[in-house]
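Hey Z.,

So I finally got round to the guanosine-5'-monophosphate thing we talked about over coffee. Here's the setup:
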Amino acid sequence: MVAEKGMLIVVSAPSGTGKGAIIKKLLIEDKNITHSVSATTREPRKGEKDGVSYFFMNKSDFKKMITKGALIEWDEYCGNYYGTPKKYIDDVTAAGGDVILDITVAGAVNIKKECPEAVMIFVLPPSIKELERRIKDRGTDSTADISSRLEFAYSEFNNIGDYEYAVVNDNLDTAVEEVKAIIAAERMKYKRNPLILDNLYKGDLK
Ligand code: 5GP
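And the result:
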């Protein structure tokens, strides 16, 4: 069942936890969910496309977006700015679509303040050793970047209490099934469907 208004599904995880892979699979398997494309000041990595992976921009344009109120949240991560454009989220959720956000913990906490009904999911690596291996093996970041991403990862674990759900990404398929179960249950919450009786029975209820 799809709720009347779309949900915001916030997924955070330390870099290298594999949340990108979870989100990619989820988007293929659930067509009611789309991914919000963030704005960022970081340089594109090989293979990343502007407008698809991110909206890549310089700091001055990013600051203009903040001033115009065009971002629902933003954060600074490893020396770059990242932010979620508001309009896309408003349009899609008003039409009943769900939007998934892959954002930092600080950004997620700000979203929850702004949209208390957002679903908050924290993805955990199966072990610290595996987290370190995944970050190093990714090969897309410089050595300095790898160590700051690791430092940041350790600090982000402290915020898990701000999330409603914790999913361990040991096996990708299992983690995706768990996220799908969370989303299915959230869609059935009565508070997301306050008009369910009217919609189902169209006035036939005696
Ligand atoms: P990456 O540089 O690896 O693509 O992303 C670095 C971090 O920025 C990741 O933890 C990712 O979740 C986060 N991030 C991406 N987009 C946004 C955004 O719009 N807002 C916030 N707060 N974090 C973001």
